[in-house]
Amino acid sequence: MGIINNLNSFFGNYKDTFYIEKISIDEISIIKDGKIIPDKLDILQNFLYEQEERTVLNTSEGFVFHIGGDSYVIDFDDYLTKNINLYPKVTISRKGTGLEIKLFMRHD
Question: Per its UniProt entry, which superkingdom is the organism in (predicted)?
Answer without folding.
Answer: Bacteria
